[in-house]
Amino acid sequence: MHSEKHWDVIIAGGSLAGLVYGIILKRQGYSVCILERAESSIRLSKAAGIGIAANGQKFLEQYDLLHQTNPLGFPVSGSANYHPNGKLKSQLTKSFRLSTWDALYYRLRANFDGYTSQFGKAPDALPGDGESFYATGNRVTNFSVVGDTVEVICEDLNSLKQRKHQCAMLIGADGLNSTIKRVLVPQTKMTYSGYVMWRGTVPISKLSSTSRSGLERLRAFILPNNIGYVVVLILKNSYGIPGEWGTLEDEERHVNFVWYEHATDEILVDSDGHKHRTTLPRGKMLTERWAAQVEKARYMPSAIREICEKIEDHSSRQ
Asked: Keywords of this protein's UniProt record, alphabetized (predicted)?
């Protein structure tokens, strides 16, 4: 088994949570290595908007070196919920910023290890920054504590060889199927929640002027009989989330659509007959399954119906 260098901190999992911890520790001068099982740094769009609340905004203001010249996403003054008949149910005035999962991921990568993408160039490192490394294709399989050192075992998914890393602190940020959690709490089992979240995006330019006008008034739509609800992420006087590669141009922005619904776990069976535990991969949803959802949308406001009909990239997860 090949032994790697000793790090101050190793983080299992290189998604948003792992990157946030990595940036904070790097800025304190610690050497940080992120072990990420995905074999590429490129992330396909998840068709997912993301709201950045007060704590997230505080983090970006303090640690995002691009924040002053290029703030992430759009400011939102609040949100509203509507009854099925279109009448206002409640309002929330708490402000947040609205962006996309991929825009936030690439911004965090730029700050952590200087990764440059089509979302923009990376900032220059600060003099006091610790060493940072983002290792793709590395799946953490086990760990043990030996004296003052944590020994982390991972599998190199390219060579299929086992590697041993050493660190002073190990952070588990490896998601729902966490190896770290399985080692620490082996009796924990994941069970189906009983509902799924359908999501997708539509370019603003593809929507009719009538739907655009309707979206100015509609934020969240409660479905009849409490069977679920729909969220359309928009902004007052300015629609949608950043478009492809984070563009903020008006006609290139996207409307982000999320539909929460009670469903059996059979909905997580893909077009190849494989049953997934959490998320259907892109392009693997049964055509007839989404067609059935579009049919249900006939009973919703016209703007939501049009969004469902024009979504091309959709997914579902529990």
From this structure: FAD, Flavoprotein, Membrane, Oxidoreductase, Transmembrane, Transmembrane helix
Calculate ∠ Cα 121-127-129, nearest 5°.
75
The total of structural domains in the chain comes to 2
State the Rg of the chain over Cα.
Answer: 21
Enter the pTM of the model: 0.86
- The residues facing 79 across adjacent strands are 92
222 and 159 in one domain? Answer: no
The answer as to whether 50 is a domain residue is yes
In whole angstroms, give the CA distance from residue 7 to residue 130: 10
84 part of a folded domain: no
What crossing angle do the helices spanning 54-63 and 16-27 adopt, rounded to 10°? 40
If asked whether residues 223 and 301 sit together in one domain, one would say yes
Q: Which residues, in sequence order, are bridge partners of residue 260?
A: 197, 229
Q: Is 123 in a helix, a strand, or coil? A: coil
- Check whether residue 19 and residue 62 sit in a common domain: yes
pLDDT tens for the 318 residues of the chain, in order: 556 789 999 999 999 999 999 999 999 999 999 999 999 998 876 667 788 889 999 999 999 999 988 888 877 776 777 666 667 777 777 778 888 888 999 999 999 999 999 888 899 999 999 999 999 999 999 999 999 999 999 999 999 999 999 999 999 999 988 999 999 999 988 888 888 888 888 888 888 988 877 676 546 666 665 556 666 654 443 446 655 656 556 666 788 788 888 888 888 899 999 998 888 888 888 889 988 988 888 877 788 889 889 887 655 554
Boundary (domain end) residue, out of 138, 164, 184: 184
3-state secondary structure (DSSP) of residue 272? coil
Q: How far apart are CA 228 and CA 250, in angstroms?
A: 31
Burial class (CB in 10 A: 0-12, 13-18, 19+), 290: middle
Domain that holds residue 211: 192-317
Whether residue 144 sits in one domain with residue 28: yes
